[in-house]
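This part of the workshop introduces the protein records we will be handling. A record pairs a protein's sequence with a compact description of its fold. Comparing a sequence with its tokens is the quickest way to learn the format. To make this concrete, we reproduce a full record directly below:
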Amino acid sequence: MAWADRGGRPLDDVPSIRSGDADVRERLSGVFSLREMTVDEVMTPRMDVVAVDLSGTKAQVLDTLRAAEHSRLLVVDGDPDNVVGVIYAKDLLASGDQADWHSLVRPVEFVPEAKRLDRQLRDFQRGGGHLVVVVDEFGGTSGIVTLEDVLEQIVGEIHDEYDTEEAIPIQRAADGALIVQGSAPLVDLEAELDYRFDRDDVGTVGGLVLALAGRVPRTGDTLPAGEFTLTIDQMSRRRVRRVTVRRTIAAASAAAAAEEDGA
């Protein structure tokens, strides 16, 4: 499909785009893609949402905020499907010695899974809140979407002050396993292992995990991959952040036996 500007000209023929860098074209494509995407495609899924319960103390809420390194948290009443609002770190800090934090809980908007991202972006721009709860057809909590989630579809991943420095793509642990970032090129992992996964349809380790799982995996899932197993250590929304790669016991025994025979 060729995108066109308001004058009907294809974007490829617009001088400022044709002579500009690829980043401009990519961002324009991201803007148009919002019309074809829904909030459930970019949301942080329910299982990864950090929330606090109404029954918790102010100290417990502050501890959860510090541990999660978030600026706000969902507040639930006994069950993730019973969301009562959102609590902001800045409100808690400004409350001083006030023990009762419940009055600081702000209302939160609920949106259906099928809501388009372009509509959600407009709503974020019009309203003061930058977080919504995504619900399924039965009213259950599916996840949350923030303004940052939507903007990342246009400009790419956004790093904030809490993001750590770029991690080393592939590290070897003391037990011989490899700690691998999801963004690491698959060819680099194959070179480190001296092994081919024979998956020319993916380019990163995260892509390999998604291809093998056939779905969005959960933290802690373990997937067989030839002579190795891949354990998902960290997920962020629907992205694979970090994986531990270990040789299977059978493959390790065969390799050890081969070394002995060659000695």
